[in-house]
């Protein structure tokens, strides 16, 4: 065999652990007011090769003819533009773990861009070429000169290029390798997406340019004064006209200011003027401190109501435009989110500017994860190997230097899931030295040796509570630190459950400073045949399926019910029944703001129909304080249920939402509805193969209803199955009991219904059955007792478990089909409005609602149980009205549960000509076991004797007792 000779000379840098060669030292990221710049975004020429060394360097030479190359858009990923395919793994490296080596099959994208300098490009000074993000390793040539190479995908890299530039015909050549030594440091749970995915910019650097600068803007909450000091080049001046500040760089100035907080994001516009340029400053005065074992800003402890945000767009991947970034921020603000962890890399810098402006606390996380080494007990982990330390320090410095001037950034995070090691300590030491004004975060070291906050992920409620009580032990250092959950509430598919229970804990213990739901957005890839693609859909050799779709918003940023739930759970105003009858108590749950931006409105509702909404005068209690307010007298419901609703809405337009936007709400009961009629009197009559009972007709042999009030129904019977959710199925590594697989093993998805008796005697038709899966002794003795008053039919279902039951049930209720009904048919009901389950029902709001059957479906990227409405008193659809006693969970779909269960993608779901209705007495909780703990025990649906009734009638007929 002959030896392999690379065509292009050395590609050794690809597997070199060093961060790169030829780049400028990291510095603050800013857009100069007056220095010229030239965006090199847009169409570039692209040639993709299968290996790093397949092609030589000649493409970088001026005059090279790339006329037959493809074209790609920069910023972008070539694998999302028709060249190759994305790969999704959670923590497994998609190549052999053999650091620092990467596979010979190393997709390599040669990118070419020709550009002229604008006519007014200044002749003086020099120029810098900036790459804001390239995955994972790039080598760069300008006008045929090799200027260096770099790694660190989500970090900026700059080259001094002034001497190489020509007025016209510049040739920029960038060779991007998908895999490099840097890939070992970038094992985040996301798609592997090579490409130049952030901006490329040529920046003119005038003589006397600012270069780097560091804005220190502290706030003393005792004196109400801020202290500003901008470290920059000698001779520079800092002006803040609004404050009358005009000082030399490096010189501190102290004066009264309004502080910056995420709730009150007060920014002062300033200018840093150096000899060569003017740099706009957006200054927010705030002081972050670890004090008394808690993190305080401006002297006040914080409560993080956060999300983990990956950058994602369903077509463009991690190449986000400004509008998309703004949409994320606006959606967060509108859903009461107050904090972002930039999991697991620094975001595009424009995102942080938006956080400064709109107000979000940010944990800025470094581009570092080595999770795949967990498979070998962290042996050879780069973060514990000195050879890699320069690369780690380079990453830390690139993050801190780039982002240090953002008031929104209140903590630095070393990275995610990288085990422990000397490299992490070196990073923490460097960061502490460079910026002592911000605490350092890292989750992976439970001893907290390098960190200023104790951080955990997916802790069960009980452990969170123990930590709140200070009973969780740990090192001496850890015991003195606050706990935050840097990840909790795994929002994969239907869920997460249990958020309200976490929030109650966070609000009960000072040591608990909140958390960050995992995660913001589903990383589904738009796909013509599948709706959204996930892991495995591109033929990946190793993949983790739909684990990449675990966000609070769908890939197109439509809020999922999980976000609606979270918004309610973390609402900054708590409204609840007051101590005295007819009063409500309003509590200000902001950390800093009063309630003056809000106005309160109330209405009463009778049988779910609201009276006109009116203003409610509420004083503005200080943070943490409450006010009690009397509600006007309620109307008489005449036997119907009467409730009140109080809402807190924005009194004026804000930058993030308009006047009237709802921030918080609550409801309470004034009088309950009267019991349903017994519906007796009519007698069942056998008529050949039919039995009639009032307006119902049954099959005489099986006792199954054929029509109810003239409406054909099919297959009405007990149902215990749901298309298992991602949280039911759980993650493969979970050691706790995972019920989804156990349910399937037991056969709850294939229950048999043995008919024991059809008894038509007296004034009832009673059908007795035993419902059980093949191969098992456990079953449910189920009796359906039908009565009628001639106009309405009442069904009472009694269930008695029988045999040895070791598992809870997914659901307990009845299901039937309405043949001929469609997804377009409307449903009207009184009960909860949005999707809800026992532990995801905080946001369920009682009203009379109207929707089409199709609209009741929640389009989870991987189809699964969805769409239940809680506390339904009555519902009307397909010409039938059903009232429940007690209230029930209502679900209607244009396909069966079995079909839903079998579907892999949205596009697998096709209406089958029948609307299938589930009326459930109970549902099992949702939990968060796709990565975290399952539902709390109180949300379990254990088999036990149960009885529940439904009254069927014609729509418009309102039964009253
Ligand atoms: C945790 C990771 O930090 C995050 O990136 C993501 O993978 C999440 O899980 C699951 O979606 S790590 C897990 C092993 C607790």
Automatic annotation (TrEMBL):
Q: Which UniProt keywords apply?
A: Glycosidase, Hydrolase
Q: Which GO terms describe its molecular function?
A: beta-galactosidase activity; carbohydrate binding
- Pfam families reported in the protein's UniProt record: Bgal_small_N, Glyco_hydro_2_C, Glyco_hydro_2_N, LacZ_4
The record, for SMART domains, names: Bgal_small_N (SM01038)
Identify the residues that the record assigns to the Beta galactosidase small chain/ domain, covering every copy: 692-953
List the catalysed reactions.
Hydrolysis of terminal non-reducing beta-D-galactose residues in beta-D-galactosides
Say if the entry is tagged with keyword Hydrolase.
Answer: yes
* EC annotation from Swiss-Prot or TrEMBL: 3.2.1.23
This chain belongs to the protein called: Beta-galactosidase
Organism of provenance: Streptomyces fungicidicus
